[in-house]
Amino acid sequence: MIARIGSCFRFPMRQAKSQYLHRLFTCLATVRHYMGASSSHEMDPPAIVQPLKEHTATLIFLHGLGDRGTGWATGLASLKLQHIKCVCPHAPIRPVTLNAGMRMPSWFDIIGLDSSSPQDVEGIKEASEMLQGLIENEVKIGIPRNRIFIGGFSQGGAVALYTAFAVNKPIGGVIALSTWMPLHRTLAKRTGSSCLCCRTKTKYLLVFKEPKYNRDVPVLQCHGTLDPLVRFSWGQETSTFIRSFNPNLTFKAYDNMMHSSCPEEMQDVKVFPGEAFRILMPVPPANRQMDIVKCQILHWFFHSFNSQRRTSPLSVYLVALQSGMCASMITSP
User: Fold this and answer.
1) CA distance 91 to 104
2) Residue 127 burial by Cβ neighbours in a 10 Å radius (0-12, 13-18, 19+)
3) CA separation for the pair 271, 81 (Å, rounded)
């Protein structure tokens, strides 16, 4: 049981055995502290990593079982993202059935580590609602939905995947690390895809006549080949399932990596937003309305010169300036 509990925690990089054991016992001591904590689903404010330059996109990243957002915030800060703010919330403390009912930070209860195990439906939906609330917070401050990424490690990644494909709202992309698709039977009934736990090719009937959002959203899914907790084969099954209705998924495997992360994976996380959306150097959303006004003014000047049938260096300059500004508005996502 101790090994199983310890492997639930996220270790940022590959470490020597002594360092691994030191962190393991530190985590176990933390678990003992949580066992005596009072029952509460209230969460502390998220750990936030501000971008180095102007904030034009957001990554909301959920940690794994027994962890806190500060751990991943430190790792994401090391990536030195230029325009992407990282929001790393903390899970509430609750009993976890898999770990003999011990209390620890957990987004939802985990009964078993198999695609056919019973699942905490209410807990998963509650965590998804929390994530949706964080997305709405970013929308309110002016970040478009197509510039908001969601992601997570292990249990946190499961919440992100469920939110991406079971909620009827668009997002920019998903980063899923060492994780699985929860409530896949329900999602299979909605999308018409094969269920993960079914080995046949039976298809479910579509519930919705029209495709939902995020049927072509970019997804980066990463998994270690030696993961003893969320098995590599389960990650492959999740990848196959998602691709059956969303082909825009990249699956990356990391040799000899267990239920943790590694520098190669973190580098892939860093480059994924730029490759998928080209948002590292966008037009700031706050300036778009001003650009529209400028284009309107330049358009009026241009037609004033044309109405007088004059051609001057100023008119040529205005046309070039207007074209450049409007082109930047069109090409920037």
Assistant:
1) 9
2) buried
3) 10
